[in-house]
Protein 1
Amino acid sequence: GNSVTQMEGPVTLSEEAFLTINCTYTATGYPSLFWYVQYPGEGLQLLLKATKADDKGSNKGFEATYRKETTSFHLEKGSVQVSDSAVYFCALSDPDTGRRALTFGSGTRLQVQP
Amino acid sequence: EPEVTQTPSHQVTQMGQEVILRCVPISNHLYFYWYRQILGQKVEFLVSFYNNEISEKSEIFDDQFSVERPDGSNFTLKIRSTKLEDSAMYFCASSDDSGNQPQHFGDGTRLSIL
C-alpha cells in the first residue's frame, strides 16, 4: 500500500536558519505529492504541491521537488521565521489508481526561536 | 477565498451516544472527505464521497460510521454509538473533480467522548 515517511521532530531552529524536512514515499502508481501545514489550534492548510516527476512546488518561500528516482519530496526554506512554527505534513494521493484519499506522514513539528 | 466550514468546533458526548459532525464543503467541489487525527498521531483517512455515494473508505470506517449529503450544501459524518477511542479531531475536506487538485480542509471538530 501507499505510505509516507517523514523525519522525526521536533525540529528547533533559530530565525533565519535554513530548513529541510525530509519526506519519502512509497506508492503503486504515480502519485501527486503535497505539503500541508497545521498552525496551533487550526486545521490543515495546503502549502504546496507537485503532480509529476521533477515538478517543483513553491509557496511562501517554501519549496519541494518531486524526485521520482529517490521517491522523495523534501521541504526546504532558505530563511525561517518565528511565524513558520507549526506542524508540517507530507502527503500523497494516487488518483491514477482511483485512490484520491490522502495518505499522510506522521508530521514534523517545527519550532523557530527568535 | 472560499472555505470549508465545520460545526461544531468542539463536541462533548457521553460514550454510547450518537453524534453528528457537520461540514459545508466549497460550493463547486464534487468530492468530499472525512479524516481524523487522534491527539499526537497522524491524520488518517476515513471516507470519501462522490456523486451521492461512498467512493473510498478505510478500515477505520466500520458500521458505526455513516456519511450523508442531506441537501445541496451540507456533508455529515454520523457516529452511531460512540466509544472512548473515537475521541479525536475530525477534519472535513473537499476537492474539485480533477484528480490532481488538492483537498481543502476545514478547521476541524474536536470530539471528546466521556
Protein 2
Amino acid sequence: DGGITQSPKYLFRKEGQNVTLSCEQNLNHDAMYWYRQDPGQGLRLIYYSQIVNDFQKGDIAEGYSVSREKKESFPLTVTSAQKNPTAFYLCASSIVSGPSYEQYFGPGTRLTVT
Amino acid sequence: AQKVTQAQTEISVVEKEDVTLDCVYETRDTTYYLFWYKQPPSGELVFLIRRNSFDEQNEISGRYSWNFQKSTSSFNFTITASQVVDSAVYFCALSVPDYGGSQGNLIFGKGTKLSVKP
C-alpha cells in the first residue's frame, strides 16, 4: 500500500534535547511538507521541499530544521531553540509542488516536551 | 493577504440530521484552489475535495455536497443524513500560486469539530 508513514506516534523528550521526527513516503511524490497543529488551531507550515536536496522555510520555521537527501524521506528536527515544541506534527506530500495538487498526510507524531 | 475563516468551532448533531460547515476565504488572486480535509480522531488528514476558482459548480459525492460561491467568498460543506462515523474535525484550506515565494502551500482555517451523536 502506498502512503506516508510517520514514527513514532507518540514521542516524549526532556526540555533542551533535540528530537528528530521521521517521515517516509512511497507515493513517488516530489514535494513534501511539515505542519504543526496546536489544540483548536489549524495547521501551520514549518518547512517544505519541492525536490530532493532543496527545502524552504514555511511560516513558523524558527527552532526547526529539515533535510531532504532522498525523495522518500523528509525528517524534521525539533531543536532546543524551539520555545514551545509540544504539539502534533503532520507530514504531507504531493505529486509536485503547486496550488492545484492535493496533499496527502501521514498519521502524525504527537510530541510532548517536559 | 490570504485567510480562511471557519467560524463554527464545534457543532453537535444527532444522527441523520443534515449539517453544514461554513468556510469563508480571503484572497486577491483570481486563480486559487479550495480544499476540504477531514481529520478523524486518529489524527491523519483525509483529502475530501478540491475546487478551482473558475469552477463554481456545486459538487455532490454521496452524502457530501459542496457549495462554492465566489460572490460571498464561501465554500460550504454539507453532510446529509449525518452518521456517527462523520464525527471529526473538518478543515477548509486555500492555495494560491506563488504564496510566500512558492506554490502549493495550503492556508488552513482553524477547523470545525463535528460530533454526531447516535
